[in-house]
Amino acid sequence: MTHRFTSELRKLERDTHDACSNCARSFRDGETSHSGYDADGTPIYVGDCCALMVHETAARHRWTNRPYETPPVQASLWRYMDLARFIALLRDRSLYFARADNLGDSWEGAKGAYGNKSRWDMHYLRFFSDAIRNPPEGYRCDQSDEEIEAEAKRLLAQLEASGKSQLQSTYVSCWHENESESEALWRLYCPPPTAGVAIRTTFADLRQVFDDDLSISIGRVKYVDFRTQFADVNDAIFRKRKSLEHEQEVRAVIHRYPEHHDTGLTRQINLSALIKEAVISPFSPIWLELVLDDLMQRYDVQLPIRTSELLIQPFF
Length: 316
What we know:
Elements: H1 7-15, E1 32-37, E2 43-46, E3 56-62, E4 76-82, H2 83-92, E5 94-99, H3 117-133, H4 145-166, E6 170-177, H5 183-189, E7 196-202, H6 203-209, E8 216-220, E9 222-224, E10 239-241, E11 249-255, E12 264-268, H7 271-274, E13 277-280, H8 288-298, E14 305-307
Parallel strand pairs: 9-10, 13-14
Antiparallel strand pairs: 1-2, 1-3, 4-6, 4-7, 5-6, 5-12, 6-11, 7-13, 8-11
């Protein structure tokens, strides 16, 4: 294996993680994935089914599921905001990522309910103890049972501390997946009589505007019952309480961004490439459409604008 990874190969691994890039066969847990290049030097990411096509192997991995699933490429994603945030979006031409511990949810990044912590601790104490007692080939364990127990407890405490510290080095941009508007989210983010706007994009376009930044992961949030389930160590940022399932959230996540210590960060984007349309809140004053036209001219941005479909009148 050469361990040579171009940005194109990294993108291919990211975009086709779940299936062979040649025959589209879905991978199963525990199978081998092969990353590399074919005879023409084109990046390739395949399973054993097409392994003979790999001329240069960069790496082989035991395939596992990502900590999140991705929406269909043309799935509509919405971001609801008040007028001030929309103006900032136009002015800065950038998306805001809030630091995870500032998202307003006390359960953000949680592994489970506190009442179940003893079960969580017991599992990882056994895991660490077994790992110490069974070192890799060529090494031996010379520690006593008491020393192994003390080391397992130290590792457990370190794991818990890292879970809290990761919230301060993880940044999130939140989106709502839906093919139509959500009156509930209008009321949540732009309650009457707030002047508000929702921007709509697709999963493909959101991923494309960050195409060159492989530090950004984009996927669906999974809603779990923390009374009976745990989040995994690696997927907690993509897990939320079952009671928030109405959010249908898709997250763009940046992990470990040590040069930033603020409550959030921004990423420059191409607004025209991202935004399919800007929709005016049904609770906004009637003058907002004229204001938006003026803002577009001021910031030299051209976006399709329409009023909310919730303003359509019924008949009886």
